[in-house]
Amino acid sequence: MPPVLIILLSLFVALIILVPLIEKFGPRFSNEQLSRYQKFIWPLLVILIITQLLYSLV
Predict the structure, then answer these.
(1) pTM
(2) Rounded CA separation 14/12 (Å)
(3) DSSP assignment of 35-51
(4) Any idea what DSSP says for residue 26?
(5) Distance CA 25, CA 52 (A)
(6) Distance, first Cα to last Cα, the chain
């Protein structure tokens, strides 16, 4: 089995195990905290897309 498939398989299994654990035992955020974080999501996504476009053009 190629190493890439082993890495992808282990990441997928870790994702299946960790996501329910984080949802169950993770911190709970209030609506005020969520709205504060939400203000930063779209600008960060725009910066990410622009940098990816610039990186792909170079």
Answers:
(1) 0.49
(2) 5
(3) HHHHHHHHHHHHHHHHH
(4) S
(5) 34
(6) 34
